[in-house]
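pinned: reference chain
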Amino acid sequence: MHEDNCVRRSFCMEAAAKRIEDYGFIGNMRTAALIDRDAAIEWLCMPRFDSDACCAALLGERSNGYWQIAPRGQVISRSRRYRGETLVLETLFETDSGCAAVIDFMPLSREGEARVELMRIVEGREGRVDMECNALFRFDYGDVTPLLREDRHGVSAIAGADALRLCSPASMRCDEDTVHATFNVAAGERVPFTLTWHASFQPAPEPRDALLLLGEVERWWSEWSGRCEVDEAFREPVVRSLITLKALTDDQTGGMVAAASCSLPESIDGELNWDYRYAWLRDSTFTLYALLTCGYRDEACAWRQWLLRVAAGEPGKLQPIYGIAGERRVDERTLDWLAGFNGCRPVRIGNGAYRQLQLDMHGEVMDGLHVSRMEGVEPDADLWRVQYRLAKYVEAHWQQPGAGLWELRGPQRHYTHSKVMSWVAIDRAIKGVENFGLEGELEPWKRLRQRIHDDVCTHGFNRARNSFVQHYDSDELDASLLLMPLVGFLPASDPRIEATVEAIQRELMHDGFIYRFVSDAKRHDLTEGEGAFLVCCFWLVDVLLLQQRRDEARALFDKLLSVRNDLGLLSEEYHPVQRCLLGNFPQAFSHVGLVNSAHNFSDASRGHKPPPARARQSN
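pinned: its structure tokens
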């Protein structure tokens, strides 16, 4: 046992171990790349977020694919930053002979264009620096070695249906299965590299001017970020989070992916490794709140159209997870040839949770569409027809057990949060009729709303422990109970809510960080296994604000900001003992929590009540 614990502790603490916070993120709203502090691309999927990776070293070894541009000699220091309020990443290297920067970005794809590109520009800053480019591409998540071809334009890598073209004015050569280039840059000089994906059965597109596109991309992101409506005191973390959320939104379909990565471990023992490169209805509606409160309505309209497409047909066929374009099947499998992040296996792609019955998601969807109406987004009659059918589905099925918010792969249960969100679904349907004159069954829905409310208060509240509990006939706590006042189910001042919050802080909190629930692995040590769930921590911030505990809320919010990496990015979880990020990265859920909590502080400072963004949806 002692030896096993030592192995687990090495996950974040050994010098040779990878750290999730060491990665930066770039994207073009169709796909993304993760880049480490040494300017090595270790995760790259083309042409979509959920495509097979052609650089998969993140989840294995460098032999599974990477692309690095760095100085050839010893590096004295390195630093990195995003260039202003953009998604252009700059890594600066200092050597004995001078300084050089590697500037990474992905040009935005033009409408109707299949081209997907990643561009890297090496820029001399001081003196003269000898640089080296090494690229080893592997298709099918590091398993398939492509055929390399050199020509006067650059190097092509081809395997099956996929092809990559790497172009640069630097002289490149192929050494077995690796592309090499050595060159130097003096102050003021720039050497571009362009990697383009295209279908292998089609001609490679002509490379575009990376230097010209750099300015275009910077202007686009700066203009988009400039439209953000947020108090200046919170601008930096909120804008970085919004840029991340925007980059995780597909510009063709309107689908919002939960994260850019797959199988980054949630637990130190490495078994909780899931693929998050898909669109969760729940996560998408949370993202919708964050974007709308900051003034971004185009994204809301695009997502509503995405939802209309995926919800077409029977509401009973609604899934918790879809592909980016609304694909219904995202079957799960393991990749045995990948060693996993720091050896954490198995590596999974796809996500079998799409088959689960998660009764809370209907409430999330109804809530998201309700808030879009409240924010003045143009009404859509087709969407109300979808909502009406969803309300009727909830009316018939709210008493069923399900998998719940956390997608647990055990027995189905009557999760309290799922019942609360069924109440939300009916409550928002009622408000659609009352506030917007939409056609519905007002009186029957009002009776049903009260019936669900009574049922939750009777069966979801454990009088012996004086707290709401995870599921009926249980005495276990769950951080999702923090959402009860935020969705308007009960006021934060209700004694039952106050007692529940106190219990969560007492039993699910370590050093200010909230865990989802007490799993079997955590019976003796709350910090064993998976980390604290960051969005739950932001929910606690919101509840504390509702309870007028502003100083506590601000102290926790500042602590959460402090665990972002140096680029302002968050993963799904944080381990407060080993002090490292865990889970897929960057995680939309976590950044949504940050944005909403920042707005809640702004509302509270203006005297608005209730402050939390989600609570105002019950008005």
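why pinned: The radius of gyration is 25 Å. The longest strand covers residues 116-136.
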